[in-house]
Amino acid sequence: MAVKKLTETGIAKINAPSKGRIDITDSITQGLNLRITSNGVKSWCFAYRYGGKQRRMTLGRYPDISLIKAREIVRNSRADLAVGEDPYKLREDKINANVQKQEDQITVRDMAKEFIELYAIPNTKKWKTTQKFFDNHILPALGNNAVKEVRRKDVIKLLDKIKNSSHPTAANHVLSSLRKMYNWAIERDVLEFNPCSHIKKPVPIKERERVLNKREIKDFWDACNCVGYPYGPICKILLLTGQRCNEIATLKWSYVDEAEKIIRVPAENIKAGRGHDIPITDDVIKILNELPKFRGEYIFTTCHGKKHVAGFGKAKKQFLEKFNPTNDWRFHDLRRTCATNLAELGVPLHTISRVLNHAEGGVTKIYARHSYLKEKRDALNLWASELNIII
């Protein structure tokens, strides 16, 4: 190892070795070494003995750390040695303390931003809904709190406030969103405690049992004719097939195989991420054939097929002008109405489950690979015949 008085000018003139590396010790400051590698990288280190062992502490690259600064760091480190302290350990403790301080200062708002960007957007279809619950409820109440300092009582206080509002069921979604964010942070080893743990769903949800009776089915079908494209045909197909609103509203023409009488919905369009083959009856084919076709790929659209329709809330207002049910109804009730009528027609429950594309669990999911396409087709044809009688 060469020993020389280092200067800024001299360092700039040192050529990199053809291979390997060279070390130069500063003759002015004991223990200060300059290392130059074959790719021209120059870096400082401090060589010293502590506890009877030779040690080496990297200081950083040159010229990021100047010669003057490197000498100052080494002099301070030698002063630490003089009082029995290990300079390397002191530096690591300081770095860890700074990291801990930064982590302690992370707010709920900071964590929510990362959660939405790194988890919700890439992994969930309804991330905008999650964002809404953070923006409207969680961040106004807890956004400026350190994420580590939020306690269960803080979460309960927030949920109690929402429960007493005009939209109490939002409390359930807020709890779910906040709990997921904390679990996500724990998985990433950012946090160790979830303040949402052991908090029960604040508002019990009563499962809807609403099914349209035969009089209502006829009136609703007539309303579909009055409302017209796009929501009228969508709702007819919902009633005929028992599928979810979003799955029909987002259909593309490429999904329809008229020759095979199947709509093949890909997994990314399904709520649970399972692709689904929907056998379609002659009635559905007739509805599709009567629809306008645009340049875009979507079947149901208000912008020439470039985007699929949305806004079922506005559509419901249109229906209520033409349809007067005996009590409150929702579009999802069409799915339940289809399933209920299939059961009344004697269709086995496991076939109805396949029609609705419900998840199968346990060994059924692993071993039952039969598509039930014929059974689903027979069931929907049976329902289509009954529906024609009703309307």
Termini separation: 97 Å
Q: How can the largest sheet be summarized?
A: 5 strands, mixed
What number of domains? 3
Q: Which percent range describes the beta-strand content? A: 5-15%
Structure classification: alpha+beta
CATH top-level class of the largest domain: Mainly Alpha
Please state the overall shape, judged from the principal axes of the Cα atoms. elongated
The CATH homologous superfamily of the largest domain: Intergrase catalytic core
Query: Rg from C-alpha positions?
Result: 34 Å
CATH T-level topology of the largest domain: hpI Integrase, Chain A
Mean pLDDT: 89
| Beta strands, count | 8
In words, what does this structure look like?
By secondary structure, the chain is an alpha+beta fold. The chain has 3 domains: 2-104, Double Stranded RNA Binding Domain, CATH 3.30.160.390; 108-187, Orthogonal Bundle (DNA polymerase, domain 1); 214-390, Intergrase catalytic core (hpI Integrase, Chain A). 49% of the residues lie in helices and 11% in strands. A hairpin with a 5-residue loop joins strand 2 and strand 3.
Tell me the layout of helices and strands.
Layout: E1 2-4, H1 8-13, E2 21-26, E3 32-37, E4 42-50, E5 53-62, H2 67-82, H3 87-104, H4 108-123, H5 127-142, H6 152-163, H7 170-187, H8 214-227, H9 231-241, H10 245-249, E6 256-257, E7 262-265, E8 276-279, H11 282-289, H12 312-320, H13 332-344, H14 349-355, H15 362-367, H16 373-390
Parallel strand pairs: 1-2
Antiparallel strand pairs: 2-3, 3-4, 4-5, 6-7, 7-8
Helix pairs in contact: 4-5, 5-7, 6-7, 8-9, 9-11, 9-13, 14-16
